[in-house]
Each structure stands twice: as structure tokens, then as C-alpha cells.
Amino acid sequence: MKKSLYFLILCAFGAAIFVSCNKGDSAPNNPVGAGGSTARMTLVGNYLYVVNNAELQTYDVTNPSQALLLSSQNVGWNIETIFPYRDKLFIGSQTGMFVFDNSNPKKPVLQGQAQHFRACDPVVADDDYAYVTLRSTNNGCGGTLNQLNIYNIAGVKVMTPSLVSTLVMPEPHGIGNKGNTLYVCMGEVGLNVVDVADKTKPKVIKTIDDDENYIDVIPYEDVLIAYVQGGIVLFDISNPVNPVKVST
Amino acid sequence: MKNVLHCLAIILLLTSCWKEKHEEVLGYAPVYGSDTELKSILLTAAQPIESGGKIYVYDKMLYQVETGKGIHITDISNPASPEKKGFLKVPGAQELAIKDKLVFTNNMKDLVIVKIVNNTATIVRRLPDTFKNLFNHSVPPERGKFECPDPTKGAVIGWQKKKLLNPACSY
Q1: pLDDT under 70 in chain B at which residues?
Q2: Using DSSP, how many helices (H) and how many strands (E) does chain A show?
Q3: Which residues lie below 8 Å from residue A29, measured CB to CB, with a gap of 6+?
Q4: Is A12 inside a domain boundary?
Q5: What band does A14 get if pLDDT is binned at 50, 70 and 90?
Q6: Is residue A223 within 8 Å of residue B79, measured between CB atoms?
Q7: What is the Cα–Cα distance from B56 to B2, expressed in whole angstroms?
Q8: Inter-chain contact A246–B79, Cβ cutoff 8 Å?
Q9: Is A165 among the domain residues?
Q10: B130 to chain A, minimum CA–CA distance in Å?
Q11: Which domain, by its residues, includes A68?
Q12: Smallest Cα–Cα separation from A130: which of A145, A144, A113?
């Protein structure tokens, strides 16, 4: 009896996720905003989410002059990043990734989490997968890992994201994705362009190794905005696998 | 004999005191700023990017934090020639998010919402101490001895490593 009830709940959950996924593509005419994978603050509609050291804070900013804190919930220690995707919020901490469902934007609810070894870890995501970079050589993050992790978060999997594959690379920092192409910053080592068409076998297509120190990226339509030490670099990514530098 | 021991003890105590008074150590000293200066947010002409910081893009405008100082605003509608539009001076800035004409950022420990209209920046909302756990300057970034902050000199906005003469605080 208990088991079937649990199954029913799972199904309901799955259905809810499925339904909510389909409403994400609305309002294409509105200007689009996007932050990087190392952000601590993000906007979704009329709600602002802030990750402090240990908390996820939700603010209602419908009326900016009266913006107010709606809730503050404890997530875990050493939270570093927040990334919104459709009706989910992905939170990266030094010990794991947390996925919140924010189909009710006033009150995000923890759906699942994946623990990993101690490291810094920006997160980005698409419908079915979350991409996490782990970096050890950082001020105070600890750990010994330098790699990209891909987690399956499709449907009910979101409750217990499972590690699909790992790709070792030097010093991965911020990440961004456009379709099946992933852009991974590696500090002074450069910018990795990774093909993730096969999630079980991510492979590096090319490494852009110039004099820049790559920290984070935002793919924005056909432009890849790279935050480098000392400023920005813009790439044309109309062909995603072949970024062409257009300005610095 | 007992007297001699007492005497020695006193001498030892004295010398150790004497020594301590002249102890020079490498530690942190507070950097002060005036409260009004720290809370002033204004839009200025474009500035060169020094070290750069986090980025946010909205409606083909790119916003980049200049860590601790403010936000660069650049028009990237033509990616081949980005055009610097201005610099929003925000003391302590590290984080940002943008929507319409609104800039959400941190002014030191406070969350602020700044509206930019007709080249003028106005603070529409300030929520104090939102980032108090994050940007806490009440103690130096590393453990050890440090110079005790003097509240009469203003608010502590950061710490500077230097040689200190017998600092009284430690953690």
C-alpha cells in the first residue's frame, strides 16, 4: 500500500514537472536577461533569488520600491552559485548541487541534490541534464578534483540526480551551454569547447588558448560573452562548435 | 632565597612586558570609509575596466562588475564593436542582476535596486545587511593578530596587511 502511494506521488511529481516544462517558452518578444554560472543573484519574472553563505532568499520585486523578502531557507554551507532554468533553480555549493522547483516562484522547494567531493562548482542546465564544474585550485574551496560532471535530471531523476559522465580538464571555472555545445572556462589555460551530444561521452572539440584568463561565460543568442581577467571578450557562435572572436 | 626568586619573577614579568610593547608583527589593519561616501551611488562616464567581475546581459546591454567599485555598462547590439555607455559607481559591488531599467546589486552589505533613467541613477530600494554573512568586514580575512577597529574613524570597509606594533585584537 505504502509503495503504491509512493509511486502515485512520484507519478504526480513527474506529471507536474512535465506540464510545467511546457510553459517555459512563452513571451519570446520580451527582452531576455541572463547571468553567468558564477552568479549569486538571479531574476526570474518578478522574483529575485539571492544565495548567501547558507541560505536561499526569495524577494518579491513586483514593485521595486517596495521589494520585500518573502522567505529565507537554509540550504547548506558554502553556497556559491545560483542558475535559473525554466521552473528550476540550480544551486552550487562546495559540497554539492541542489535543485529547487520554483513553479511557485514565491516559494522554491528543494527537489533533489547530488553530493560531490569538496570543490568549487558553478552549475548550468538544460531540460534533462545539469553540467557542473569542479575546481580545486581556488582560494579556499579545497578538494583535489578538476573536472566537468554531467548529471541526469530528467523527470523524476531530478530528485536523485545521477552522474552520467565525467571529463577531466585543467581548472574548470564558469560554464555556459548552447544546445549540445558546452563552453568551459579554464582560467589561463583557455576556453574549452565541448561536444555533449552524447552525454555519456563528452568530448573536447577545441581549446581556445590565447592570452586571456577565462572566468565565466554567457551564451546570448549568437554571441558568447566571456568574462576574462581585465574585461570581456565577445565571440560569434552562430556556428556553436566554432566560436569566432569578434571583439575584446 | 625566596626573595631572590620573587625578584627574578618580577624582573621576568617586567622584561616580558617591555618586550611585548615593542613587538612588531605582520597583521591586518582596518581600512576606513565614511558612511555617506560608501552609500553614494551615481552614474558616471565610462571608465576603463581594471580587473573586471561578474557579468549580466539584458536587452543587448552588457553589465560587468568592477569588483568593489561599480558596474560597467556596454552596448553589445553590434558585437564587433561594443560601445561603452557609462559606469554606475557602487561602493563594494560584487553581484548583479538586471531587469528593464533596474540594476540589482550589492552596495557593501546592502541589497540595492537602482533605476537608471535619462542618465540618472536613483536608488529605489535599499535592503540593509542582506549580504552580511558574505561581505563581513568585522574581522580580517585571515586569523591572527590585528589592529582593533576604531569606530570614531568610520566604518571598516576592508583590511590591509601591514606591520603592526603590538596589535591588541586577535581571533
Answers
A1: 1-22, 135-136
A2: 1, 21
A3: none
A4: no
A5: very low
A6: yes
A7: 75
A8: yes
A9: yes
A10: 8
A11: 31-247
A12: A113
